[in-house]
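Entry:
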Amino acid sequence: MEQPEDMASLSEFDSLAGSIPATKVEITVSCRNLLDKDMFSKSDPLCVMYTQGMENKQWREFGRTEVIDNTLNPDFVRKFIVDYFFEEKQNLRFDLYDVDSKSPDLSKHDFLGQAFCTLGEIVGSPGSRLEKSLTIGAFSLNSRTGKPMPAVSNGGVPGKKCGTIILSAEELSNCRDVATMQFCANKLDKKDFFGKSDPFLVFYRSNEDGTFTICHKTEVMKNTLNPVWQTFSIPVRALCNGDYDRTIKVEVYDWDRDGSHDFIGEFTTSYRELARGQSQFNIYEVVNPKKKMKKKKYVNSGTVTLLSFAVESECTFLDYIKGGTQINFTVAIDFTASNGNPSQSTSLHYMSPYQLNAYALALTAVGEIIQHYDSDKMFPALGFGAKLPPDGRNGNQENPSCCGIDGILEAYHHSLRTVQLYGPTNFAPVVTHVARNAAEVQDGSQYSVLLIITDGVISDMAQTKEAIVNAAKLPMSIIIIGVGQAEFDAMVELDGDDVRISSRGKLAERDIVQFVPFRDYVDRTGNHVLSMARLARDVLAEIPDQLVSYMKAQGIRPRSPPAAPACSPPQSPARTPPASPLHTHI
């Protein structure tokens, strides 16, 4: 059925947005080989979890487990339930204590050790299970990087082995049920003078304060008093926020071209009632309260019947990550001459001894979050728009992979000293290169994310649009960050949020591009930690939905999580190989 253009006022909402809770993750804590602080028995451990504020970097106590008596290997029953945001770096801290009394004051108890991690680290580990060594130390922030630095506290010795903490994450199932249902109506009121009504339904969930929030709207059925609407699906959390007895209000309207839709009537139900499926309990009288007050013989304005109802657990981003899907991160950096001479302070590539430039800040902000979802931490780094010595020809290095984000930064700085900034600003070869790799593995085990950082107007718009349209059917997403003061109108077109990108009459199957201008995230107060956290949140927010949309389109279900390995002592960290120079693409 054709969707009327005048329905914007009722259709411009997202059933997953607003006040609906984020995905909730349950963290389970276990420990092995804790310090023994009791003279005549073993320790009585308690775990305290802290979260870190994005703005002030202060640690706040989130919750405590129960105390388990007389053990060095506790498996705590009490869980920590936290909201999970892929796009944010959610720092966590776990402190272990040996409880000596009933006092809630932690200073009254013996400190056993602590561990730091991010929620992304836990979720991105194999089977969403992370083991970390406990150390005795306090937390302080590095003034330049904002990263945690250990310091001696509680009379302990930094680096002393204090046992191991085992953190497991599991998404709560009641956050992801999806209800699929279909309705029809019979003998609705006639509202149009020259024809019948054009009815549609609007669903609202009730709020704690008695107000209602729109959560779904059906399509309009033209010129009928007995419509049968199409089947639709809606997350249960959008419909009732997990409360099966919460009131759901359904309003019936007659669509009008001018937007002044005529109210036919309404009825109320609940998720629990709908879940009964097609039955006598799910035939609802549509009542117009004003008509009912005015007319003594008024019965109703028609009936609405539930034809079918089903609920299933929808596969989520975390299901795929927990099943072993790896995110392959690739970065491409703009080495065109428009960035300015790197040796001059006005250049976007200027390497100040005091702070990171815009390219390095953007790369670090995004990379520090996404790196935890790639097990080998080897990231291809591409460059475009440069001339390579000795004769100025563009070329390829044999090994484009760098070890970790620090490896990419090292390769980036090395390249600035060895290449000549030139041009043009061509995206298509970079997109095609990553798409070619993504096309090699389409079984759901890998998903590619390409980060392009650029300063200028794109030179190969037509070719780039074609490359993106072709890539949209592959397991990959593209993030573009524009640095500098240039106009980025073409990047907005590539983003495709308002109008889906097309090339040669072919529409992209999915929206896979997210663009943001870096200048929108420059904090005037100089707080780079906060502004870069906002940048990472905004550019990464669409990645989970893009990954899931690809998997659903291909009919790929998450794999079963790998079996949890036996507890093992922490291994010595592997030596970091030297960074490869940036692989300069054509």
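Residues 1-21, 139-156, 391-396, 568-581 have pLDDT under 50 and may be disordered.
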